[in-house]
Write a structure and sequence with these properties.
Layout lengths: L6 E2 L6 E6 L5 E5 L39
Antiparallel strand pairs: 1-2, 2-3
Length: 69
């Protein structure tokens, strides 16, 4: 379920919420990109309406998983 209460990014401290993607996974989304939309709990991440926190966090590289060969 999409969380409507913002939490702080553990790296940069920005306000984020977690939204479900079409594939069913959850991603961090910048809270300010969804503030005015009311964020119903069933809403799915839409890259035209919301901003993924992966696109703006200055510490995104520290959250990437290393690929196994």
């Amino acid at each position: 379920m999409t969380t409507t209460t913002p939490v702080a990014c553990k790296s940069c401290g920005a306000k984020i919420i977690f939204m479900r993607t079409n594939s069913g996974k959850y991603i961090p989304v910048n809270f300010d990109s969804v503030v005015g939309s009311g964020i119903p709990s069933y809403e799915i991440f839409n890259s035209k309406k919301h901003t993924s926190h992966f696109a703006t966090c200055p510490y995104v590289a520290t959250h990437r998983k290393k690929r196994e060969n």
